[in-house]
Amino acid sequence: MADAAMQARRSASSPRLALAFVLLALGGFAALAGQMHHAATAHWDEAALQLAQQWRATHPLVDMVMREFSALGSTPVLTLFTVLAAGYLCCVGRPARAAAVSVAMITGALAVTALKTAFGRARPDPEFAALVQEGLSFPSGHASMSAVFYLTVGTLIAQRHARLRERSFLMAAAVFMAVLIGVTRVMLGVHWASDVLAGWAFGAGWAALWFCIAARLRDARGPG
């Protein structure tokens, strides 16, 4: 009985905490966007880019390893992972959560594209990059969408575990994946550091927003 009451209190408080996190994360994104727009990030953006170039020059394996890890945040890989995650959630009787993951990824990708177009920031000079890519830079799509996917799925899976250490491990793993993928984008020289920080902020906020929506759907329709 006590465990059930504790679980109910935790379930009731989680959406409120998630909503507070949404406001915090998206507020952080807005602050970074303002700083970037006024070139306040230029100094440390350039310093991070030069440091990454030096690190690749002195550690030849870094380039190869970063390329492999970066692929975990690519559109084809995240699309595949999204389909698998949604399929799994449907199989275990959680269609509302499967829909939340799918729609979070689709709307997140559209939002990132719109933000890139709105800010119109160019990528770093190709001479500093180990991997030359086309397109705009702010926010980082890899950092944004990996945060949306891994944090959304990590949170939904963690909810199915009662023990704190299990939930903590799952959330730590989700955060680690998002951070790792974002770091690779700076290390490869395809994004400024502020692009990645903004991507993390946006992606974390978007994931928390869809956690709130999934919680509302669950409350409205019952378990699912």
Descriptive report:
This protein has 224 residues and is mainly α. The protein has a single domain, classed as Vanadium-containing Chloroperoxidase, domain 1 (Up-down Bundle). The protein has helices at 2-37, 42-58, 61-70, 75-91, 95-119, 141-158, 164-187, 193-221. α4 packs antiparallel against α5 and α6 (141-158) runs antiparallel to α7 (164-187). The longest helix has 36 residues, at 2-37.
Topology overview:
Blueprint: H1 2-37, H2 42-58, H3 61-70, H4 75-91, H5 95-119, H6 141-158, H7 164-187, H8 193-221
Helix pairs in contact: 1-8, 3-7, 4-5, 4-6, 5-6, 5-8, 6-7, 6-8, 7-8
- Uncertain ranges: 1-9
What is the percent of helical residues?
Answer: over 70%
User: What is the H-and-E element order?
Assistant: HHHHHHHH
Overall mean pLDDT score?
85
The CATH level-2 architecture is identified as Up-down Bundle
Largest sheet: none
Q: Examine the coordinates and then state which fold CATH places here, giving the name of the CATH topology.
A: Vanadium-containing Chloroperoxidase, domain 1
Query: What's the number of domains?
Result: 1
Features:
single chain; 8 helices; mainly alpha; 224 residues; transmembrane; PAP2/HPO_sf; membrane; Phosphatase PAP2 family protein; Vanadium-containing Chloroperoxidase, domain 1; PAP2/HPO
In short:
InterPro entries: PAP2/HPO, PAP2/HPO_sf. By secondary structure, the protein is mostly helical.
